[in-house]
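Minutes, methods subgroup
Present: GH (chair), OT, SY

1. OT presented the first of two proteins processed in the latest run. Sequence and structure tokens recorded below as shown on screen.
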Amino acid sequence: MSQGPWGKSREQIAGVALTPVQLHGAFRGPFSALVDSSLALLHDEGRPARDARAIAAQRQRLFRRLQQGEQAVLLGTGPSFAGHAQWAAVGSMLQLRELRIAPARRREGLGAAFLRWLLAAYPGRPVNVQVLAPNKTGRAFWSAEAKRHPALRVEVVESTPPLS
């Protein structure tokens, strides 16, 4: 599996390391941190994984997505990552599947910096993102970013897509 567009193991954006998540050593290190951050995102969305079975299912979903060619990065350096992002190439566009910034690190420009990096790493490719209608802060962020970046396409949805 290639490292993706970054070409090296870490890159700096807004003073935070961008660490690619790869499948070698899959259930520890960066992959384990990705699972933790993704579980926190589910909690933020009001659909927490409460038991061992649900946590294992999320771990397997993430593993399968990476096997199928999706890309993921951790924002920051361990042990306290600032968040994560996960995206997939869908035809000629990118679908941003997840972007989570830990609550303590929000409003530092990390989400905007990651988006600029993603658009630069995949020039000429539109990026689609879905944001939940009840998420007023998220809607405001994505609306402002869409005005700055014509390649960004934002869709407001009423509910989260089913986990798959």
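2. SY then presented the second protein from the same run.
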Amino acid sequence: MKVVCAWCQRTIRNGDAEGEGVSHGMCPECSKTFLRESLVDQGNLSLDELLDRFPFPVLAVDGDVVVLGANRSAAAALGKPVDALIRRRGGVAIECVNAATAEGCGATPHCAGCQLRTAVTATFTDGQPRYSVLSTHSVGPKGASHELRIRCSAVKLGKLVVVSIEGLNEA
């Protein structure tokens, strides 16, 4: 799948074996420009207000995948109010069945294979963006769960990782 910056239309990554079509993300240059201009031009925006300026669903998370900010598009995509996402680990925000266990999000044996968690923590650690990452999760209440595929990109901005949600599909 080819990945194109939603802002400047530059190709971020050419197609590969993952599938045909085009997905959108934000290139590192536009991410830096967007954040700098938003902070300088708007002064005292909250993180959520800043994130609401993105035209697609985004979450701001820390290195342990705890949601620190979300825009209204992300809340709508996940079917929750913004307040229900904040200060929750990513698995809790998407209702991953593993996050509901006693170990919690990030601590079960299944979490080691979570591509979403891997992309965010790696981006937080090395600062390199990850584009069009596909991650599959069992979500929902115990006994009534279903598979959810999430396609996302992760870009580090300061002490946060901004995760753009490019697609949510039930498997």
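Chair's summary of item 2: The first strand starts at residue 2 and ends at 5.
Next meeting: continue with the remaining queue.
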